[in-house]
Amino acid sequence: MTAPTTTRRGLTAWRNAVFAIFFLSGLSLASWVARLPEVRDETGLSTQGVGLVILSGSIASVIGLIAAPPLMARFGARIGMAGTLIAVSTGLVLIGIGGSLAPSVPLIAIGLAFAGFGNGAVDVMMNVEGAEAEREIGRTVMPLMHAFFSFGTVAGAGIAAAAAALDIVVFAHLGVIAALIAVGAVVAVRFVPHRTELGDPADAAAAGRADAAPARPWTERLRDSLKVWGDVQLLLIGVIMLGMSFAEGSANDWLTLAAVDGHGLEPAAGAAIFTVFAVSMTTARVLGGPLIDRFGRVLTLRVLAATGVIGLSMFIFGSELWVIIIGTVLWGIGASMGFPVGMSAAADVPDRARAAARVSAVAIIGYCAFLVGPPFIGFLGEQFGLLNALLVVLVLMVIAGLAAPAARERSNKPGATGVEDHPDATGTSGGASAAASDA
């Protein structure tokens, strides 16, 4: 196992690289989603046909989530993140060709499968890497990392809107975005340190030195990563993430329709309500790290779960517009940090190889809930109405709050690694904590 990165510059570069990976993932998702109406018109797909095509991407995303641990065990996090984002770029190019240059529904479906698989796999890998960086930094930064995903979606949607307004064809737009993502990924991972427990070559091996220690066989690392599924405390962390991911994913897909169909608002007002939710969640993630460091994970999760339950109740049962708006704000804040805090809690064990496996496991739980939850709400909404269907989300947020003690800190600091007790390469003690002040 390689030594921790203790210099200010190294930790800052590592953190910023993970920020970039999160941003690129969000950018890729929003870029093709925002051009979907034009792709539909070019191919003549019906609404049901669009749903079936998107299903190929969703299925591939789940496969990517499942495939991430063995890919990391075989190739390491650096190659894994770069490779999966290149797969996303390939998918965007295929979507662009099939959606404008040579209209083809099968080609779009294949492109969505590439993009879905790549994003599903990189979602797990970037969270593993983010948890490692946070641990070395010594402060909670995982919520801010997830905020960068949101920044990426905002940028992607904005660029797509500008491209559509300028009549730039889908292929040209997505081709440029694909190139930016591929190049950005390759550049970013260069600042991610090698860690043999994730399959990366040791620093000595990377430098070609003869004293390089051989990495453990990848099959052995994979077996170890599967053992964590028997950890009850980890599964309870997964319950926290399941409830919060369900709340976020359901809002992303159904909030606008629930506001329009359930509360009788105009479509423009429904879109504005969703914007309120997105801004509330992103703001909470940007500001949330210091609050977690100040009050701890358990209290923070309990307060957030209670906030989300109150907000969602106001949204479901409110009749006045101001009640619905305030409820939406509280819903967004309540659902904002369960997922990133769960990642930090899963990584809070001394064994770094085991920590990576634990983060992979809870990431799979969280993202599967994010993908499967919205269709389930849609099914219930068809039978009982969308507002009534959201009661399921309410119950899951209550359960997430009750499971909060599973996320309790095992160390005094969220990123404590012990390196602050030893001199770093420059001869100064407190490498990690000093770097944290710059991070």
Please characterize this protein's 3D structure.
Helix content is 78%, strand content 0%. Mean pLDDT is 80; it is low at 203-213 and 412-439. The protein has 439 residues and is mainly α. The longest helix has 33 residues, at 105-137. The two termini are 24 Å apart.
Question: How are the SSEs ordered, and which strands pair?
Answer:
Layout: H1 8-34, H2 36-43, H3 47-75, H4 77-101, H5 105-137, H6 142-165, H7 170-189, H8 203-206, H9 218-227, H10 232-262, H11 267-295, H12 297-317, H13 321-334, H14 338-346, H15 352-384, H16 386-389, H17 391-402, H18 431-438
What tags apply to this protein structure?
mainly alpha, 439 residues, 0% strand
Task: Write a concise synopsis of the structure shown.
Helices cover 78% and strands 0% of the residues.
Specify Rg, calculated over alpha carbons.
Answer: 22 Å
Shape assignment: globular
The end-to-end span amounts to 24 Å
Overall mean pLDDT stands at 80
Kindly state the number of beta strands.
Answer: 0
Low-confidence stretches: 203-213, 412-439
Compute the number of helices.
18
- Biggest β-sheet, characterized? none
The helix/strand order is: HHHHHHHHHHHHHHHHHH
Structural class determined from secondary elements: mainly alpha
What proportion of the residues is helical, as a percent range?
over 70%
Proportion of beta-strand residues: under 5%
